[in-house]
Amino acid sequence: MPPGNDMRILFLSQTSGLVGGTESYLRAIFDTYSSAHTFGLIHADTGLANKLGILPSGSQVDSISVSRLGENKTTAWIRNWQPDVIVNNGLQKPRLIGQMVKLFPTLFFPHDYHSSCISGSKFTQRPLAECHEKLSPLCLLRYYPSGCGGLNPLRMLRLYRRARGLQSIFPFYARLMVVSQRMVDEFVREGFPPDKIDLLPYFPSGFKSLPEEPKLRPFSCRLLYFGRLVHLKGWQDAITAIQLASKKYNIEIELHMAGTGPDLQKVREIASHSKGKIQVHGNLLKLQSKELLTQMDAVVVPSRWAEPFGKVGLEAASQGVPAIAYDIGGISEWLKNNHTGLFIKSGVTNPEALAEKIGELYSNHDAWQQMRVNAWRFAIPLTIDNHMRSFFASVEKGMSDFKSRYPATQTS
User: Fold this and answer.
1) Using CA atoms in the order 93, 99, 102, 103, what is the torsion angle rounded to 10 degrees?
2) Cα–Cα distance, 123 to 345 (Å, whole number)
3) What does the pLDDT look like over 48-61, one tens digit per residue?
4) Domain at 222-379, CATH class
5) Where in the chain is the domain with CATH 3.40.50.2000?
6) CA distances (Å), 303 to each of 23, 93, 234, in order?
7) DSSP symbol at 53
8) What is the CATH number of domain 8-203+383-405?
9) DSSP label at 214?
């Protein structure tokens, strides 16, 4: 059990639904540690984003929606709840957060780029590339020529003001927690003091590593796309690459797609004309995901988003499944080429290169088997307990820093 037993920890999240990795991270913590700590959750939803929610069934976690209650009543609720510490996992309410950081020790745990990028993608369409620019007024000038986001100028200005508002809170956070060097670099560039940033080991939410190394088996000729069905996750490249590889290398490959999102219906439509070569599973419970993973030869991660980490690769590795991915964001921190998977260094949105890597995977069974074992070994020490030990160490430093800064703070 990690240190810091019986703490009152209030998490802030943009949504209460299991939308992606950020929310599954919180769900894993609530599932595992609710008996040792008192948790609270503030989110911005007016309803669940899908049928699955962050909170476990029958959860005792106190939860409110700031969108329903309003910011003033939410502030009063927080004061009454009296957290020992607040951890912002992505709530985008600068005014509310700005009040809380001066009343309670508050740590920032970003899983995205909404406080450092207008669109939140850190990706440009012209050229197709990851963006490493610092957020500034110049981003407003680059936004349309570089194809950073949509075409609505009012929305662009609103998102820019929101990002700037979120950045205005940086000096008041007790600490910053991240899970990749990519995110350390991002927030140092945005002005966060390096000595207040803690790099934590991550873990595969809801997955435990196989108890023993993956057993030798033949190829199943099944690959998995596992994630949100949105444009920036690159599902289109996965489909195109499978079709190219099947034809070029004369391999009958099935692509299984697990996840949901705004493009789900479009994906189902494409799958309906694939003669069974594309199987769409929708949103799966972790047990179902684990069972599906064990049948796969690899996961494909063709993300066009600068993944802060890319946890799907770690979840796959825990089950002895290597990955094939673009070199973007924090992916290179867990995917080692020809060791835990195959890496495409020739840029994103390159389904031809992805198809070549798929062909390479199926050209050498022994190398694939070794990648399975290497991926599994890499994931073994990355457990939720190890993560939470580092989490609480960061929390304790943040609480100490807060007391030094605000020795006479009254929270009641």
Assistant:
1) -110
2) 16
3) 544 568 887 778 89
4) alpha beta
5) 8-203+383-405, 222-379
6) 19, 27, 5
7) B
8) 3.40.50.2000
9) P
